[in-house]
Amino acid sequence: MSAGTLTLTNNSAAVSGAGTSFTTDLAGGDFIVVTVGGIPYTLPVKSVESGAALTLVSNFTGPTQAGAAWSAVPRVALNMVTAALVTQSAEALRGLNYDKQNWQQIFSNPATATFKLPDGSSFTGPSWKYLSDNMATKSGGAVPVNQGGTGSTTASGARTNLDLGDSATMSVGTVAGTVAAGDDSRFGTVNNKTGGTITSKVTINDKLVTNGGTPGTYETALASPGYKQPPVNDSSATSAVFGNSFEYSNGSGFALTTGFGAVGNGTSAWPSTVLMQAANNVAYGARIWTFSMSTGDLICNGFGNQGGSYIFTKAAMSARELKNDIKYNDGLRSYENVKKLSPCTFIYKDDKKGRTRRGVIAQDIREIDEEYVKEVPNRLDGTSLLALDTNVLLLDTMLALNYVIKQLENTQKELTGLKNSFVQP
């Protein structure tokens, strides 16, 4: 905006200013721009009388207005706008003329044509007339296959040249001699299909039924099961692999996920088979049941709301046929071991009822005989716990009792003999 304000009078060419410098900002032939009553006016200046007075070329036709803001527009600025408009119009017309000439060449030139662009550049290429005339003379009107055509003027000849076979002329159907449509029901089933590999996830909404395997020895049945997952190589030798898992929910917030698989025990030990139960995706705890390949033990590790770890007792085979180097003894060693036991009472940390129990501490009896305990790995946190080997403890207790019974019987015999020696004749 220019300095000061203007006062314009309806039907008058005289304009007065307040705080203006007309003699500096304007000259005859320049323009002033002012907005009166929301309408912009561009008014040409006839003469400048002073810094606060000027005369318009024609009378002001708008309403009388005082204190109006204004802008001075030099004549040269408007001339530049007009000149630019003329230049741009000339360029547009030149482009239209070029387009007209180019289209004429595309349709009429018998060979190559030169096409001009508005920026003065040009390029050459074949005209449409040239292409049309050229294709009409190809092999009796047919464009060869190696040039993008069919090489024939008949449908059957085109199919032959393009190696389409006879499928292009078959009707849609489900019997021999027909082709399948996109909505063919056979596409919705794998019935009677054989072989192949599925490389992405498959969702089955109904039951999955496999063949029943091959009856025979255990080895034969294991090699030919109804369902089998290929080997999975675990480079860490400590990870778990599940071959089957599923979730059951009773609809009342109790969702149990069950998984069956295997877990590694390092590179120098056999893996173990595992059965895992997870309560609401382990939010309410889980249990891992481990079947040891090397020891035959069954171990249960629990955490969270399903706490408690256990190892289950095995009934050991004790037949003579299974043993070597059998040596009988009096059971004194078992007696001495049992004497060393340290009885105690205790409360399990995960026993919410806080019940007092009687027994022994595994670390204590390991000091007596290492065969009395087993080290049980915890699959959930990587630690291990000691469990009592009740088979060994039971047999040592039986042998100690046997020893005590025999000692008691011998003592009774000695007492009887002493009593008889004191009997008066």
Report a brief summary of the structure.
The chain has 425 residues and is α+β, with helices and mostly antiparallel strands. 25% of the residues lie in helices and 25% in strands.
Descriptive overview:
This protein has 425 residues and is an alpha+beta fold. 25% of the residues lie in helices and 25% in strands. Among the domains are: 5-73; 82-136, no CATH class; 328-368 and 390-425, no CATH class. The strands form five sheets. It has a seven-stranded antiparallel sheet. A six-stranded antiparallel sheet has the order 10-11-12-13-14-15, with no helix packed on it. A two-stranded antiparallel ribbon has the order 8-9. Helix 6 (332-339) packs across helix 8 (390-421). The chain is elongated, with a radius of gyration of 53 Å. The termini are far apart. The relative contact order is 0.04.
Main sheet overview:
7 strands, antiparallel
Approximate strand percentage? 15-25%
Nearest-integer average pLDDT: 85
Radius of gyration: 53 Å
The global form is elongated
Q: Give, in order, the helices and strands.
A: EEHEEEEEHEEHHHEEEEEEHEEHEEH
Class by alpha and beta content: alpha+beta
Low-confidence blocks of residues: none
Question: Largest beta sheet: what is the strand line-up?
Answer: 6-1-2-5-4-3-7
Q: Say how many strands there are.
A: 19
Helix content: 25-40%
Tally of individual helices: 8
First-to-last CA distance: 155 Å
